[in-house]
Each structure stands twice: as structure tokens, then as C-alpha cells.
Amino acid sequence: MHSSTKSNLLIASCYAGILALGMVVGPKLGLESHAAKSGNYLPSLSGGEEKVEQVLEIIRENYVDPVKVDTLQNLAINQILSHLDPHSSYLPPVKAREQSQDLEGNYYGIGVEYTLLRDTMLVTTVKHGPAERAGIGAGDKILQIGAKKIAGTHTSSKEIVALIKGRAGTSVSLMVKKREENKLQRIVVKRDKITVSSIDAAYMLTPTVGYVKISKFGAATAEDFSLEMGRLQNNSMKSLILDLRHNGGGYLNAATALADEFLPDKQLIVYTQGEHEPRTDYFATNSGKFEHGRLILLIDESTASASEVVAGAIQDLDRGTVIGRRSFGKGLVQGQFNFGDGSALNLTIARYYTPLGRSIQRPYKMSQEEYFQETSKRLQQSEASIVDSVSDKKHSYKTGSGRVLYDGGGITPDIHIPVDTSSFNSFYYALREKGILTEFLFSKIIGTYTPASIKNIIDQYHLNDNQYQELISMAIKSGIKTNSRMNEIAREAVNTEIKALLGKVYFGDEAYYRVLNARDKVIARSLQELKQP
After folding, report:
1. Which of 170, 304, 429, 517 is the most buried (most CB within 10 A)?
2. Which residues are designated catalytic?
3. How far is CA 396 from CA 260, 269, 360, 404, 407, in A?
4. Number of alpha carbons in the 13 Å side-chain half-sphere of residue 225
């Protein structure tokens, strides 16, 4: 593949199980004779292609009722792509821009995270961001953005994002109800560049074991990871737990740069190949920061694409131990073709292969709905409680140490840890989905309890019986169905999540994971593995 394309290679998969993209080689422009100098993909039309354009034009000029031809055009494109594979996709301009901003790790806005509680925005602020500088704090409620009322209007998250984001230097007027006061306040916030790191946490779990949590592979992930690794090594880190659970993918060059930190010079990390794409190899260099220490890599059913590239390389080359549950199984490569209106076509053009030659792509002959629901079904069936047996396995491969690995169905961990069903049940997930835990935190806990440290939260804070009953009552009033047995089963998980949210409010995002990890069975098993010779 042309060298100018490789730097833009990305592998994006199922963010929250909704956005299904793929390994994108884009923009693949200026490489074909039909690519315009402007950078837009403008193929000449003939035959069948011209017929589609003619049909749309006939509809535009002759149809009995007014019709949005652009909408019909998008439907036609999506219908065509639906017959190819689950990861070829068309992105309208807004979606294409959002994908770019997400992976680049920055956007222009006011710097808030929010939860919609009965049509009201309950916010936390990005540290040192525009909203915090303007006086908005954690637990405040935004009732109006500009002229648009939010409270009681069933405004969607999509609409809220569009209202908040904007050009740098422009301002937005907000009607805010402060958490500490029972009155409204109008606050004007000037939009600015918001940088969001893909490194969610990086700290020492024990005096010699470091922990790094990566949420996606963005433009700055490799650089940020290198900085965090240097800091951890300065704190006497000898072993590392790299957490790629819930990591849906990102830029391929970020993934290969990360794998490079663990592998010796000239070691093959991954290669890509397709019918019209010659094989392209990606090798490690001689600059790895952690080529010799003990390495544990954590995965689950939401670990996809770029994350699977890293996991596959580490496993194939016997560089570390993979722990958790079978990964998503996404091994298709997309070429990104940009259009003049800002939209983009992500078309599958190749597959990627691990160093041993494994393709980890799952079969996709079923419907797209069935394809994307497969991971949920895994958890509801045998893989939730027993060691994984992958029905999609096709071929076996042997590593240098003699371990047998398989292709065709994601990365199977070396050590399988089933889903913890001891306290995570439907009541717990309903509380999270409806924002009840966040609402309870800000309405009943923040302001009445101020922790001295993260350790103080982990060791000492617990919801008492009265608080838990109050939370249950709040849930029932919100329409959540439960019973005494479900309440008791979920209590430990609810308590831990409240503690983690408490840590996030007072000590930042990393504190959230510090609290969760204190009772994480996968982390506990990883630490146990590191004690083995």
C-alpha cells in the first residue's frame, strides 16, 4: 500500500456496540486515477452507476410529493453496503466529523460530561476546561443551552452535543442550577479546544506492578503511553497489567506503536492483505520501553480491532499472558473515501493477520443484527460461566513455546475469567442505564461526605442500610422493577460503583478505576499470575 496511506490506517470497531466501522485505510485519495486533486472521491459514472443517479434525478423532478433526495441517496448507499460485510459503512458529514474528533482526541466545546436525568443535564466538568473556568461544578444541572430549553423537552443527546460543540472562541449561554444553591444562574462559557486522553488510568497497583487502562487507540495514545510508562518505571515498576477491556479500536499506527514498546527490533507485529491490496507488514523497532518485564494483557468481548492487533501480537510471540474473555473478533480493514460534503465511505478492502498468520475475524454470513448481538449471546450462554470453546475456530497455530492458538473467532485468552454474576444483575444494570446511581450520588452523598483520599473511599466508605433503601425507593419511583433478592445480590456492585463515582468526582477519572480495580476479580487473578515464576 502507498506509504502516504499507512499513517492514516485505523481500526475502529464497536464503540458501545453501536458504531461499527473497521480497520480504515483512509483517506485513500490521490492513489487512484479517478481521485480528484481536491481530495474528494469523484468517480466517473457509466452504465449501472449512472442509472442510480438518473433514478434519483427523476424522483427529484417528477415525484408526486416533496421528497428529500439526499435521504434516499443515503438509503441506497446503506442498502448496497449491507450486502457486503458488517463493517463497510457510510458516514454522513456529522458522523464522519465525530469519528475524526473522537480518535484525534480533541474537539471544540465547553468541557462537560453529562447524564440525562428525567430530561435534565447533570454534569461533571473536565479539569481546567472552559465550563470549570466559568464556574460550573460537578453536580450542577444545565436546564437551558442558548435559547433551547433542555429540562422537560425530551431533548436527545445528539441535539445536546450539537448545541454544546462549536467553533473555538464562540460562546454559549447556559441556564444552570447550582448544586449547592436552589436558584438558577446564567453562565456564559467560551468554547475552547478540549483534549481527551485515551489513557484512562496509569498507576502502581503494588510496589512493583503497574497498571495502564487504554480506552481507544487515538492519535496521541502512543505518545501518552510512553510518558506514562516512563513515570511508572521511575516508580520501580517491574511488571505491567495492560487493560484493553472495552477498547473498541482506533488508529492502527497507534496500536503497532504500542505493541512495539513490548517487542524486539524487526519482530512482525501484524500484516494486512486483500484482493486489491498487496501485503503490508508492520514491524517492531529497537526502541521498546518494556521489552523484558512481565506483561499481562486484559481483554473481553468488547475488545476489538486495534486492541486485537496488540493482543494477537503479544500472544503469538509469547511476549505476555492474555487474561479475560474472548475478544470481539473484528479483523477487516476499511479504506476511507472522503466526499466533498464531508461524508465518508469506509469500505472493506483487506483483512489483517497476526504474526502467525491468524485472521481473527468472526463469520458474518448472518444478519448484521445477529452479528452484533453475538457477543451478548456469548455472555448469556456457556462463556459466562465456563472456559471458552470457540465454535468459529478454523485452523490451529503453534507459538514458539509450543502453545496452540486458533483463528476465526477473536482472541481467546490464555486464562479465561467468567463474568462475575455474584452481584452484577439486571437491577444493577438498570440503575446504571437510568442514571439513578449518579443522581443518588449528587443528591444524597456529595456535600454530606468529603473523602480525604482515594484509599479512604476504598477502605472506609460504604452505603449504609438506610441509604441503600433510599436508593431502592428512588429506583422504583423511576420505574425499575426489582425485589428483595435482586436488591441483596446487587448491593456489593452498587456500593462499589457509588464509591468509584465518588472517587471520580473528588479525585478525577483515574480514581474511578482505582476504586473498581480494588474488587475486580480479573485484576486479582492477574496479580496472582504475576506471583508465579
Report:
1. 304
2. 305, 316, 330
3. 25, 19, 12, 6, 7
4. 30
pLDDT tens-digit series, residues 353-401:
999 999 999 989 888 888 888 888 777 665 544 455 555 567 899 999 9
Q: Pairing state of beta strands 106-109 and 112-117?
A: unpaired
Instruction: Give Cα separations from 86 to 14, 22, 140, 472, 521 (angstroms).
Output: 11, 9, 40, 40, 33
Query: What's the Cα-to-Cα distance from 284 to each of 155, 229, 452, rounded to whole Å?
Result: 48, 18, 44
- Confidence at residue 6, expressed as pLDDT on a 0 to 100 scale: 35
115 Cβ neighbours under 8 A, 6+ residues apart: 121, 122, 123, 435, 438, 439
Give the amino acid at 18.
I
Query: What is the value of pTM for the model shown?
Result: 0.86
Amino acid (1-letter code) at residue 433? E
DSSP characters over 195-216: E--SEEEEEESSSSEEEEEE--
Collapsing DSSP states into helix, strand and coil, what is residue 80?
helix
**Degrees, nearest 5: CA angle 238-242-244:** 180
Return the bridge partners of 513, or none.
none
Q: Report strand pairing: 415-416 vs 321-324.
A: parallel
Residue 130: in which H helix or E strand, if any? helix 130-134
| Predicted confidence (pLDDT) per residue in 8-65, tens digit | 444 443 333 323 334 444 443 322 222 333 334 444 444 556 788 888 899 999 999 9
Give pLDDT, residue 3. 35
Domains of the chain (ranges, CATH numbers): 3-104 (no CATH), 106-195 (2.30.42.10), 199-333+352-419 (3.90.226.10), 426-524 (no CATH)
SS3 222: helix
Give pairs for 157-161: CB < 8 Å, separation 24+: 157/116, 160/114, 160/116, 160/121
Q: Is 16 left (phi over 0), alpha (psi -120 to 50) or beta?
A: left
Query: What is d(CA 191, CA 418) in angstroms, rounded to the nearest whole number?
Result: 44
Mean per-residue pLDDT for 155-164? 89
Of 120, 11, 46, the residue nearest 346 (C-alpha): 11
Give the model's pLDDT for residue 106: 81
Spatial distance between the Cα atoms of 386 and 327, rounded to a whole number of angstroms: 15
- Are 496 and 433 contacting, i.e. CB atoms less than 8 angstroms apart? no
